[in-house]
Amino acid sequence: MSELKDKLILVVDDENRMITFMRMNLELEGVRVISASNGREALDQAREEMPDVVLLDIMMPGMDGFETLRRLRTFSQVPVIILTAKDDEEDRIKGLELGADDYMGKPFSHRELVSRIRAVLRRHYAPPPTPQTTVKVDDRLTIDFARREVLVNGERVNLRPTEYRLLYHLVQNAGYVMTHEMLLTRVWGPEYRDETHYLRLYVTYLRQKIEEDPANPQYILTERGVGYRFVDFHKNQPAED
Questions:
Q1: C-alpha distances in angstroms, 116 versus 7, 58, 89, 192, 220?
Q2: Cβ pair 189, 162 in contact under 8 A
Q3: Which helix (H) or strand (E) segment is 149 a member of?
Q4: Cα 116 to the chain's mean position, in Å?
């Protein structure tokens, strides 16, 4: 039985042939599909039907996919996969910055469509790691994993779920280099082991939130061509009696 069976997916595209293609392929997996041909209709559907995943085309007349996504994020954290032109990296980055969970470049296959949906559902609904421990990196930065809180100079910093998972894996391996592939596999899933641009983008987000000077990071260090290493804070802490 398909793990997608009975999931409700909202397909948003102004091209009927794309909606038909995605509907046919998803219904083979037992998915329930609803559709919208423009941004306003998509927002109404998202409010009323509460889908499990939204597949959102960027290039639509009137309200484009970016504006639709921006408004959607004001009331819903539903996983969103944006649909872009194959080689348009700027659209992909902008979509991720606005809160998209993933993207697919057109055209795409049935296998890729199903794989990406499974991956975002797995990430979205999997319980986050919550070891019962508080890590005091230094006088400036404290991470309370039990409460999922990050404090910078005593002030709480809000992290997205993906940012939290990335920070968790870096801190739990402090002092050791985590390769690009290791981080991508653990945070995003094995399907993403080669998608290094995701990692670069989210490391940038984290640095902007926790580093005093993001351009000269002191916590998340780049090991060029290999991966990233969180500063080894253990050696600066007093030994226990």
A1: 14, 17, 18, 10, 28
A2: no
A3: strand 149-152
A4: 12
- Of 170, 179, 178, 180, the closest CA to residue 143 belongs to 170
Q: Which residue has the tokens 């596999």?
A: 185
pLDDT tens-digit readout, 172-185: 888 989 999 999 98
Q: How far apart are CA 48 and CA 27, in angstroms?
A: 21
The closest of 18, 74, 17 to 43, measured between CA atoms, is 74
Which residue in this structure is represented by tokens 């599909």?
33
Task: Please give the radius of gyration of the chain, using alpha carbons only, rounded to the nearest integer.
Answer: 20
Q: Ramachandran region of residue 136, left (φ > 0), alpha (ψ -120 to 50) or beta?
A: beta
| Strands, sheet with 155-157, edge to edge from the N-terminal-most edge strand | 134-136, 141-144, 149-152, 155-157
All residues at 6 or more sequence positions from 28 whose CB lies less than 8 Å from its CB, including other chains: 110
Q: Reduced to 3 states, what is the DSSP secondary structure of residue 102?
A: strand
Q: pLDDT tens-digit profile of 209-221?
A: 999 999 999 999 9
* Rounded mean pLDDT, 94-115: 88
pTM as predicted: 0.71
Report the distance separating Cα 17 and Cα 221, nearest Å. 46
Please count the CA atoms within 13 angstroms of the CA of 55 that sit on its side-chain side.
Answer: 26
Contact yes or no for 119/189 (Cβ under 8 A): yes
